[in-house]
Amino acid sequence: MSDTPSDLEFVPLAADDDETVGQWLSLLADAAESGPRAAPPCTADMTGSLRFAPPATALDDWVVRSGGRVVGALRLALPDGAPSARVDQLLVHPGLHRRGIGRALHDHALRRAREHGRSTLSATVVESLPGGPPQDPGPAAFAAAMGAARSDIPAGVHQWLDLDRHDPLAGGVPATPAGYSLVTWGTVTPDEYAVQVSELELSLGDAPVDRAAQEVRTSYARQFETMRQGRGRRAYHTGVVHDGSGRLAGYTSVSKTTGNPAYALQGMTVVHREHRGHRLGMLLKLANLEYVLRHEPAVRLLDTANAEDNQPMIAVNAAMGFEPYDRWVFWTRSVDLPGSGLSG
């Protein structure tokens, strides 16, 4: 590694700084070409992210300049009340690797985490699956070199569905079991389902929850919708209603950005524990895929991730044609760990 450039300058990334934001977007595009498989960065989504943070989370965005140009970027996510600062973005221009810029960004992340009163720094690192396509070992090696270690949190299994290779709808959407009905909605959840969606999301369908607390959670859900709309994203939902009680027994979500017509993200799918065993998860996903394609016929690629111990949902995805591609491994370190190299 050659010497770190002597003129590195850290600058907060502000949404109204058009020149710096433009250079940041160029950096994202350049880094994506050599990074893990993902949808290309969407300009509307990324610029919107500077104004619309996830609910109950603050974002701390920085770029680092050298020679007057943006050569790296850092985003810290700061969930309310959590002890950890999460590194959502730590990027160095592909042509400037092994120049010490990554370490400088990491050291800046540690300083910012301390200033925000956080005790740990965490990140998600893409690693290879056994038998899967090889992934760049560099990010994991960098995390280890910075003093981080793999967390005990189960890794995520990242899967892709290529609709040009697999047609999950070739056999049609399964019949809805007796006693249930399907409903659909777009980006904004109808008022009649908002609390129930929140209950299912918070509990993952597994446990009773405090209804009063869910009223607050509904506000959280509305904040999420505000973020999604502010970033120009569209979403498609299918829910299954238990006819006898009139309550939502489960739902699924697919969302997409405006700038990538061919890409979509398969998000949350949850079925309440009292209604499992009827293949409602598969029904929801197939019915919602049909709903998505009616409105977004250009979609050809969907990706999703599930904790590796969630084998039932991973199996549902595999039955639809989703193929495992890589693992999302959680790494963490103390912000006060000796040997952090905080030399600037």
From TrEMBL:
InterPro entries, A to Z: Acyl_CoA_acyltransferase, Bact_Acetyltransf, GNAT_dom
Single Gene Ontology MF annotation: acyltransferase activity, transferring groups other than amino-acyl groups
Pfam families: Acetyltransf_1
CDD domains according to UniProt: NAT_SF
Annotated keywords: Acyltransferase, Transferase
Domain of life: Bacteria
Every N-acetyltransferase domain range: 8-170
Protein name: GNAT family N-acetyltransferase
Source organism (scientific name): Streptomyces jumonjinensis
